[in-house]
């Protein structure tokens, strides 16, 4: 019996899944997190106040105080059975990293003790040469440092019976360049805070801090573990490189918000329990549109914490799934012909006075503040749409963008008809000089228009990559497997830069004698005119939009190797360097790293396609071909006329043609890879892999393989089919 049928059989025989304990969420939430409430119990006043000041004010912690904090954290962790700790960081591999050390040590006299001091809390030294650096580090230059991020609380991860204390950290090279996602993100958040506070002070002098917030929506597929193990492409690539569409896919639209299958429901409850203990505030779970596709979403959090929680959750989900003999697929497009998976990033800004800056208010003053941040965000997306596109560029996301509800590669902004009208009304006054009477009328008009738009002020547009959804912007183009940090780093940096320019423009008008509100409206009006080309309310999938976007001068960067060029423009270098987020060297390194990741992922997919075609598909097809041939020859030998085996001959011919094309194309693809591998320049090599390998061969080889799947005897087909993988019950 083939691996495929063994896998199917195992589903029938083992469908119960793991037992899930029932626990009240509030009773376990944050139980494995060193929260400020916990810190209050384990730290002396000096250490506690220092930690609070560091978290809320960004102040550095004195090393002597760090010793007290470390002792408190260790005491808490040991009370929960922890014996080891690790600096938990997010290198540019796209996954998390950790090196475990025990609290156990020996004193000079041989006495065994448990110890965790401030130095161990603050800093650790992993091998920097073993992580992607984009040329920042030579192979022989191994030194790198992880440094504690006090703003993200320590937590305990449970793996089986083991428990490890995790300290969230940044990761930098010996010479100080960032080698991770977190360090640039923290810098971008601080840049946004500084620029936003200065603009907020036009309206409220009490604002001293602006915190960007993020609510991610994590989409994923859940497949039986045995079926995944019988698909080398899922194991190696996270997606199926072959697979014919089943008779029933998502066309009946019966999976979305449907009843959750029992095994998946048990898995969801299990990983939610783990997430709650880690302080991840999951709120929503449901079936997504595609069969076997699901989604979870949390309550909004500060961006840095939200990014850590999403990264942590992806790991938790994958581990917990194994307990239920399931596998979570986070690839953006694991199955062709049905919806891919995204990770919508819902972003806003909140003041320390309790105001959501992207929520329309109830007074003319607060509405003017809303318009200021609303229009500045649109202007930022318009001016840096290419950089924002580069932030979501990856080989997996290229499979998704522009297909089955994923937005197109053209970055545009959807605001809805009501706010579009407000912007249009302001723009229409372009030849009118505002005076105090106009100001009063304008504010009155805004007061009438905006407060009623508080939340669901307009329909949603699923084809928009960047949409305003009532009190936040939803960046819909982020891929499901991505680390949110890169898109959040770019978004917060471009908005920070635009707000900085906005303040300079407003101050210049005030210096010329304009009243503050009049000056603000003049600059808002100017920004609306300058950025209106990025606004689009229609169907992003339509061919007409692609032509219209080109007419408007909006970039349509369809592939990752080309999209990543935006990181190397003078505009991008000036943007990130002026904000203190990336140096030129760091930007160039990231460009190199992302290109290398693209090359390797396409290369692996090409190799697995060749392996499956030669070792699975062709043997099955040739076996069936021989059966057809034997049947035809037998009928001939029996003296039957050709009309008696005309159908068999037609099928035999069709199977033979597909076999020949697959064989020839796989061989040609291997040769194309060899040519690409000899290219030294990374960008040129990535483009070659995209155009000469992926674009030239992937779809064509797949077409012929999928045709064979419909022709070859089902008993001879060794790979689990879509109809078997997608309908888990």
From TrEMBL:
Residues 83-176 form the GS beta-grasp domain. PROSITE patterns: GLNA_ATP, GS_BETA_GRASP, GS_CATALYTIC. Pfam families: Gln-synt_C, Gln-synt_C-ter, GSIII_N. InterPro entries: Gln-synt_C, Gln_synt_N, Gln_synth/guanido_kin_cat_dom, Gln_synth_cat_dom, Gln_synth_gly_rich_site, GS_Type-3, GSIII_N. One of its GO terms (biological process) is glutamine biosynthetic process. SUPFAM superfamilies: Glutamine synthetase/guanido kinase. Residues 181-617 form the GS catalytic domain. GO terms for molecular function: glutamine synthetase activity. Belongs to the glutamine synthetase family. This is Glutamine synthetase. It comes from Hydrobacter penzbergensis.
């Amino acid at each position: 019996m083939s691996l495929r049928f063994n896998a199917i059989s195992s589903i029938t025989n083992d469908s119960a899944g793991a037992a899930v304990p029932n626990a009240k969420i509030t009773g376990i939430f944050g139980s494995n997190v060193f929260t400020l409430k916990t810190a209050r119990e384990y730290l002396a006043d000096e250490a506690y106040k220092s930690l609070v000041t560091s978290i809320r004010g960004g102040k550095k912690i004195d090393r002597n105080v760090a010793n007290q904090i470390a002792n408190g954290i260790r005491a808490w962790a040991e009370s929960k059975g922890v014996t080891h700790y690790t600096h938990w960081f997010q290198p540019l591999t796209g996954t998390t990293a950790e090196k475990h050390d025990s609290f156990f040590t020996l004193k000079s006299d041989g006495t065994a003790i448990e110890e965790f001091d401030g130095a161990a809390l603050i800093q650790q030294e992993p091998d920097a040469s073993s992580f992607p650096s984009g040329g920042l580090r030579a192979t022989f230059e191994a030194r790198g440092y992880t440094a504690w991020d006090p703003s993200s609380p320590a937590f305990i991860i449970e793996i089986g019976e083991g428990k490890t204390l995790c300290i969230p950290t940044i990761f930098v090279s010996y010479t100080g360049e960032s080698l991770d996602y977190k360090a640039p993100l923290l810098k971008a958040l601080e840049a946004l805070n500084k620029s936003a506070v200065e603009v907020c002070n036009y309206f409220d002098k009490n604002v001293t801090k602006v915190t960007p917030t993020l609510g991610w929506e994590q989409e994923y597929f859940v497949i039986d573990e045995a079926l995944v193990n019988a698909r080398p492409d899922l194991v190696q690539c996270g997606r199926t490189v072959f697979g014919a569409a089943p008779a029933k896919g998502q066309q009946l639209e019966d999976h979305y918000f449907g009843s959750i299958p029992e095994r998946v429901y048990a898995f969801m409850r299990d990983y939610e329990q783990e997430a709650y203990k880690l302080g991840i505030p999951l709120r929503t779970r449901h079936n997504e549109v595609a069969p076997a596709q699901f989604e979870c979403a949390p309550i909004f959090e500060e961006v840095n914490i939200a990014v850590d929680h999403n990264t942590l959750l992806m790991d938790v989900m994958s581990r917990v799934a194994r307990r239920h003999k399931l596998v979570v697929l986070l690839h953006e497009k694991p199955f062709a012909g049905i919806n891919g998976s995204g990770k919508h990033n819902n972003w806003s800004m909140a003041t320390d006075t309790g105001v959501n800056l992207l929520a329309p208010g109830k007074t003319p003053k607060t509405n003017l503040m809303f318009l200021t941040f609303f229009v500045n965000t649109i202007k930022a997306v318009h001016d840096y749409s290419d950089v924002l596109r580069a932030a979501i560029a990856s080989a997996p996301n290229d499979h998704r963008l522009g297909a089955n509800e994923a937005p197109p590669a053209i970055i545009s902004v959807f605001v809805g008809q009501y706010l579009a009208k407000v912007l249009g009304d302001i723009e229409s006054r372009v030849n009118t000089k505002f005076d105090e009477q106009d100001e009063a009328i304008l504010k009155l008009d805004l007061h009438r228009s905006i407060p009623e738009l508080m939340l669901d002020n307009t329909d949603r547009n699923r084809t928009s990559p960047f949409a305003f959804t009532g009190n936040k912007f939803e960046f819909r183009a982020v891929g499901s497997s991505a680390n949110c940090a890169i898109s959040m780093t770019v978004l917060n940096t471009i908005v920070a830069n635009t707000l900085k320019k906005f303040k300079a423009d407003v101050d210049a008008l005030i210096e010329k004698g304009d009243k503050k509100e009049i000056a603000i409206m003049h600059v808002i009006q100017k920004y609306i005119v300058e950025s209106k080309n990025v606004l689009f309310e229609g169907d992003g999938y339509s061919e007409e939009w692609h032509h219209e976007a080109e007419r408007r001068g909006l970039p349509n960067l369809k592939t990752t190797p080309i999209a990543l060029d935006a990181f190397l423009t003078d505009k991008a270098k000036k943007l990130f360097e002026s904000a203190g987020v990336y140096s030129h060297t760091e930007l160039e390194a990231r460009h190199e790293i992302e290109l290398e990741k693209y090359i390797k992922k396409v290369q692996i997919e090409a190799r697995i396609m060749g392996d499956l075609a030669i070792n699975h598909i062709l043997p099955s097809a040739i076996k069936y071909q021989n059966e057809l041939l034997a049947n035809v020859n037998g009928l001939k030998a029996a003296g039957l006329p050709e009309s008696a085996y005309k159908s068999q001959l037609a099928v035999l011919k069709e199977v033979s043609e597909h076999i020949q094309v697959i064989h020839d194309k796989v061989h040609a693809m291997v040769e194309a890879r060899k040519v690409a591998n000899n290219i030294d320049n990374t960008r040129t090599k990535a483009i070659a892999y995209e155009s000469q390998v992926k674009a030239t061969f992937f779809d064509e080889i797949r077409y012929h393989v999928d045709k064979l799947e419909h022709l070859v005897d089902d008993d001879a087909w060794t790979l689990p089919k879509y109809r078997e993988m997608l309908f888990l019950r």
